[in-house]
Amino acid sequence: MIPLLHTPEGVRDIYGDEMIDLRNISCNVCDCMKRFGFEEIQTPSFEYFDVFSSERGTVPSKDMYKLIDRDGNTLVLRPDMTPQVARCAATYWRESDEPLRLFYVGNTFVDNSGYQLRLKETTQAGVELFGDDSVVADAEVVALTVECLKKTGLKKFQIEIGNAGFFRALANECGLSADDEEELRVRIKSKNLFGISDFLTERKISGKAAELLLAIPELFGSEEILDRAASMTENPAALACLDRLRELSRCLKLYGVDRYISFDLGMLSKYRYYTGIIFRAITYGTGEAIASGGRYDSLVEQFGRPMPAIGMSITLDTLMAVLQRANEETFKIPASCVVYREGAYEEAIKLVNEMRKNGDFVRLRPATAEESAKYDGEGNAWNI
């Protein structure tokens, strides 16, 4: 018999102080997004399967929660917000030439059965900036990520930045098939130097491209690694990716967030729709990123409207857990409590009405016997 008093594996109830923390973190993040000029959008919790199909480069089909509607269509609980918002941009702003700024807060559902203790339902807040292919747009989204994390009270974190096009340029130079590219991608993501070396040897790949691929897992750190990588290749597409990262670095210095920034040319996202810069925010106390994002200039076109785009998302559950472990301030809103003697609620209601009109957060409840004795002679209602 299913134990109905417990939730299924990978999902949980959130209540009490934890719910207060989550809501306050969400409000602070959304406030930052609004100040950067983004407007809120809400998308449905489930969509047609094709919105997230493998051609889009999103979550693998086996990791999606699927259901069938009465007409026989395959639907999925959304595993990723970006393709949904891209669909909206292509549908509702088809005739607009102005850059489009949208932000969202919503839950995503991914069947992480192979990852013990990882949540299968998470709350994400993110932005998508459409119609601007400039490095300035890249910098603005990265800077916004920094400001959102700072606004929640997080003090120690790092934004690691790479470029999805850099690895793709080297893979094309080596003439790798799609399957070989995926295998090499897995070895680079795990920083498996021996595995990369064996891969290159087995396929008789040599020259500068092979040397750079073997060095990629160690190409992380300050901006100097971009110059080191540039000295190891003559590939025009790879060099263009490095130039873009240098220009991005200059923009981020203007935003004053460069102390949070480092570079990692071996960074490869699980989302295959990224075409340009990719980034993730990491901090102490968690083995996964608290935020991630990147440029995806080809995704919206798959919904019928060519449009460059860049976005990011923050996993609020992970961020909340980090803040709680570190005892960081999450900007809780203090709430007063008005209590009243049994049956004597008139005075209490007048009091809470006045306090709420003044902008206070107030709870109302009957007084306990101990409280009635403690405030004996002080009227029928008290603010405690």
Topology (SSEs and partners):
Blueprint: H1 16-35, E1 39-40, E2 46-48, E3 66-68, E4 74-77, H2 82-92, E5 100-109, E6 121-130, H3 135-151, E7 157-163, H4 164-173, H5 178-189, H6 193-202, H7 207-215, E8 220-221, H8 224-230, H9 236-255, E9 261-264, E10 277-283, E11 291-295, E12 309-315, H10 316-325, E13 336-340, H11 346-357, E14 362-366, H12 369-374, E15 381-383
Summarize this structure as a short list of keywords or feature phrases:
BirA Bifunctional Protein, domain 2; alpha+beta; 384 residues; nine-stranded mixed sheet; three-stranded antiparallel sheet; 15 strands; single chain
Largest sheet features: 9 strands, mixed
CATH topology of the domain at 16-156 and 284-325: BirA Bifunctional Protein, domain 2
**Run of helices and strands:** HEEEEHEEHEHHHHEHHEEEEHEHEHE
The quaternary organization reads as single chain
Low-pLDDT segments, ≥5 res: none
What value does the Rg take, in angstroms? Answer: 25 Å
How many helices? The count is 12
Strand order of the largest sheet: 1-5-6-12-11-10-7-9-8
Output the CATH homologous superfamily of the domain at 16-156 and 284-325. Bira Bifunctional Protein, Domain 2
CATH architecture of the domain at 16-156 and 284-325: 2-Layer Sandwich
Alpha-beta content class: alpha+beta
Description:
This protein is α+β, with helices and mostly antiparallel strands. Among the domains are: 16-156 and 284-325, BirA Bifunctional Protein, domain 2; 336-383, no CATH class. It contains twelve helices and 15 strands. The protein has helices at residues 16-35, 82-92, 135-151, 164-173, 178-189, 193-202, 207-215, 224-230, 236-255, 316-325, 346-357, 369-374; strands spanning 39-40, 46-48, 66-68, 74-77, 100-109, 121-130, 157-163, 220-221, 261-264, 277-283, 291-295, 309-315, 336-340, 362-366, 381-383. The strands form three sheets. A nine-stranded mixed beta sheet has the order 1-5-6-12-11-10-7-9-8, sandwiched between helices. A three-stranded antiparallel beta sheet has the order 2-4-3, with no helix packed on it. Strand 13 (336-340), helix 11 and strand 14 (362-366) form a beta-alpha-beta unit. The chain starts with 15 loop residues before the first helix and ends with a strand. The model has no long low-confidence stretch (mean pLDDT 90).
